Amino acid sequence: MTASLLELRSVTKRFGDFVAVDNVSLAIAAGEFLTLLGASGSGKTTTLRMIAGFDLPTAGEIWMEGQSIHLLPPYKRNVNTVFQNYALFPHMSVWDNVAYGLKMRRVARAEIDERVGQVLEMVHLEQLARRAPRQLSGGQQQRVALARALVNRPKVLLLDEPLGALDLKLRKEMQLELKHLQTQVGITFVYVTHDQEEALTMSNRIALMRAGRIEQVGTPQEIYDRPATKYVADFIGETNLLSARVRIIAGDRATLDVEGQAIDAQAPAGGPVPPAGGQVWLSVRPEVMTILRDGESPPGHNVLVGTVEEGIYAGSLTRLRLRLAGGTALVLHMAPTGSAVAPGQQVRIGWPAARGVCLAE
Hints:
Layout: E1 4-15, E2 18-29, E3 33-38, H1 44-52, E4 59-64, E5 67-68, E6 79-82, H2 94-104, H3 109-122, H4 138-150, E7 156-160, H5 168-185, E8 188-193, H6 196-202, E9 205-210, E10 213-218, H7 220-225, H8 230-235, E11 240-250, E12 253-258, E13 261-266, E14 279-284, E15 290-292, E16 301-313, E17 318-324, E18 329-334, E19 346-352, E20 356-360
Parallel strand pairs: 3-8, 3-9, 6-7, 7-8
Antiparallel strand pairs: 1-2, 1-4, 4-5, 9-10, 11-12, 11-14, 12-13, 14-20, 15-19, 16-17, 16-19, 17-18
Helix pairs in contact: 2-3, 2-4, 3-4
């Protein structure tokens, strides 16, 4: 990854007594696609607005290319923002909407024609340049908003839930198009969403926010496979969270007690090491669990015995709900063509020890 283009240094934003963003520090690389992910009220949009200049930090600083920008007005920052509602001018054509910012900056007509033509071709709208926004689909309007932002050649493009108004199928298509576009233009994207699947699909890195703070920063794989906290494990994707107690933690390995069984897992990713006997959680993703045949004990696997409660067909997989003898519920994903199991059947459940993560409270 290249050097940091944008830095947030101990940034805090208060609205009266309410702390919307609490001492956030974050470095964003040039050309990176970074997603601010979190539930409603986590502080992600306020963080984006401070980068854009719409809100000023109560404390802390924002730096870009080695220069302090947190006190600059929005028009003096080399950033552009794309909002969920697109904010297109209804009385202007696609071409005029995209060219508007360049005209306001009094760019020469020949250069406007060239740059607008290039960006419309990039977003596959060159054939629709003379249409009005009302004549476009939601996905096409979203592309116009992107083109209008990109034509100004900002160093950073800020996107605040830009796909939120689209239906599910179109949203998934636009996720891939947006990621391809970002790779093509090489501009730094800072993207806000509450949709964890969207964040995993599109991002180079994810900053997961909670109550105004960053809970964890990492690549999608790091966030998914090595969550730092119970909250991260539960927020990103689906997981089984099993109550456990520490038997021993040594280096990057932990041995836990789950319903009286010794279970091996990865040690917590950070923070103080829980003591022996301490209460912790074991996170195991449903897709890494399998139903074992009688007598089957793969090396390096944990094994528990549970009773099948329900099987739910979901197209590409079947979701099994199981319950351990002590009452702990589990969800397991298996291929629809896998071995048939019936409610009430007792089965052996296995998973690689390295795919379970010990999480402190």
